[in-house]
Amino acid sequence: MDNSKTDWAKAVRPLIKKYKDEPHPLHAKNLYQMLVMVVLSAQTTDNLINQLAPDLFKAYPNMAKLAAALPEDLHPLISKVRSFGNKSKWLIDIAKQIKKDAAIPTTMDELVKLPGIGRKSANVIMRYAGLKAEGIVVDLHTIRVANRLGIVATEDPKKIEKEMMEILPQKEWDAGMCMSFLGRDACRPTNPLHGECLMNKVCQFCLNNTD
């Protein structure tokens, strides 16, 4: 199948319609919690972050409380998180810079200046806040789904985001996070559910692997 002529702006609309209101798998209750959880979640499962979140936020319910802590104060609460030593330093640095929840940045440029926050994390935070997208969320699920669809042909997250931003109009940029949800539901790493996938009519991988 040649997907070079696919109208992707049109093709992703059903995907966005299905998942646009789907809450992020990180169970944050406010923007402060989402920022903290996103920093912690790099190379760590969302489930683990959700499990430790209640105790963490009971001890540090807001940015002001977090700013008054030392990195080692966080260690007992996040020791199961990969690279928890670095992440505890990043979170304290962020808290000391921001000082209060109301001052959490709301633009891509400001967010990526914070330690431990790259474009993917910033995109997730901005989506949670309901802000206008300035980029496209690209996680492991998005990488798999975008390549299987044939909208991109690279495993590099930065290249995927750049290419998809060029292919899709800004109003369709939630497609990245929606692809992530699709990757969890149907487009799994093994045994993908082709018959249940709403993208199966435009998916290069699906059409090449089903009768």
UniProtKB/TrEMBL annotation:
Could you tell me what this protein is called?
Endonuclease III
Gene source species: Panacibacter microcysteis
What the entry lists under InterPro entries is as follows: DNA_glycosylase, HhH-GPD_domain, HhH_base_excis_C, HhH_motif
GO biological-process terms attached to the record:
base-excision repair, AP site formation
| Xref: PANTHER family | A/G-SPECIFIC ADENINE GLYCOSYLASE/ENDONUCLEASE III, ENDONUCLEASE III
Entry-linked CDD domains: ENDO3c
Q: Name one GO molecular function term.
A: metal ion binding
> Record's family?
Belongs to the Nth/MutY family.
Q: Which Pfam families match?
A: HHH (PF00633), HhH-GPD (PF00730)
Q: Which keywords does this Swiss-Prot/TrEMBL entry list? A: 4Fe-4S, DNA damage, DNA repair, Endonuclease, Glycosidase, Hydrolase, Iron, Iron-sulfur, Metal-binding, Nuclease
Record has Ligase as a keyword: no
Span of domain HhH-GPD: 40-185
Record SMART domains? ENDO3c
